[in-house]
Every structure is written in C-alpha cells, then in structure tokens.
Amino acid sequence: MIIKKAEFMISAVNPSQYPDTGWPEIALAGRSNVGKSSLINTLVNRKSLARVGNTPGKTRVINFYNINDSLMLVDLPGYGYAKVSKEERKSWGLLAETYLNTRQNLNIILLLVDMRHDPTGDDILMLDYIKRSKREFAVVATKSDKVKRSEHKKNIDNIRRKLNLDDGSKVIPFSSLKRTGAEEIWSVIETFLE
C-alpha cells in the first residue's frame, strides 16, 4: 500500500468517542510492550506517528490513526502488564472488549505476539476471544530480528501450536528494526479489505 497520508485522529475511552468515518478498521491487539506502536510506525513509514513507550502499559486508551483518508489503524491497550492494579487492568480489558464487540467496521484484527517467547495465557485468551467473535485475524510475530534466522521456523511452529492455529491462519514474522514483514502485513490487510 502506498501511504500518502498517516495521522493520529483521536484517543477514545468509550464508543461515543470513536470516529464516525465508516472506513474499514484494522485493530492491533497484543500484550504490553509487544511492539504495536512500532508496527504502526513501520507500516506507515513514519518514525513517531504512534508514540513508542519505554514503559509497558503506556497505552490506556484506544488510539485511532487515519491512513490515506480511507482506512483506520486502531491501537488497542496492551494487556498482561503486571505492574498496574487489577482494577486498571480490568478497565483496559473492558475498553478493548467494548470496541471489539461493538465496532461494525472492524475488518481484521492483528494479534501481535513476541517471536522470542511462547504466547502467554493472555495471548491464548485473546485469540480464543477473536475466534469466537468470528472476526478475521492474522498473527504477527514481532521482534523477529532478535531471533536467529535458523530459529524462525521453529519459533513460528511453536506459536502455531500454542495458539492452536490451523494451516490457513497467517503468522507473519515482523521486525520494525529491519522493516521485514511490513509488505506481507499490508498484503494480508488488503486481501481482507477487497
């Protein structure tokens, strides 16, 4: 996809604040610090459209990004960060759940998992939730530059096994540092938008 325009649109904490564009939306879900902001920046070829936090658990709202006045990237709050109160974690979960349950123009969910580690219990729960919602999805294995090339297949097979993915489900290795995987992610997004 050729990016002519990429801009932050709005942060929302409830449905009345969601932008009313009618454009297709691509939501990014994943645990805190998995690289959602870095993925957005790489996909749109910008250094700091989405602010990358040094502290996990920084995104406490849903951030909407306008891409080419024709689609929206939606950054959901990260889950699974232990250093926040249970109440706060619950409210972030509710925020994401409300969006995922109510958003009509949500076309695809990208579930980000760290390629270096096994998917967490929270990742498994999130994917089960996505499958039950009957939404289209793809799994993005982030931080692939931190895994030896020779280990990629083993780690991806492991992610597939842990998440109980069928052969038709995509797992895309991605590195914001080396900019690998971005074209494949766009290609998957475009397939679902057609």
Write the layout of secondary structure elements.
Elements: E1 6-12, E2 25-30, H1 36-43, E3 62-67, E4 71-75, H2 86-102, E5 106-114, H3 121-132, E6 136-142, H4 152-163, E7 171-173, H5 182-193
Describe what you observe in this structure:
The chain contains five helices and seven strands; from the N terminus they run ββαββαβαβαβα. The protein is of the alpha/beta class and 194 residues long. It has a single domain, classed as P-loop containing nucleotide triphosphate hydrolases (Rossmann fold, 3-Layer(aba) Sandwich), CATH 3.40.50. The protein has a seven-stranded mixed sheet with strand order 1-3-4-2-5-6-7, with helices on both faces. Helix 3 links the parallel strand 5 and strand 6. The chain is globular, with a radius of gyration of 16 Å. The two termini are 13 Å apart. The mean pLDDT is 89.
User: Radius of gyration from the CA trace?
Assistant: 16 Å
* Biggest pleated sheet: 7 strands, mixed
Number of structural domains: 1
Low-confidence stretches: none
How many helices in DSSP terms? 5
Query: Strand order of the main beta sheet, please?
Result: 1-3-4-2-5-6-7
The secondary-structure element order is EEHEEHEHEHEH
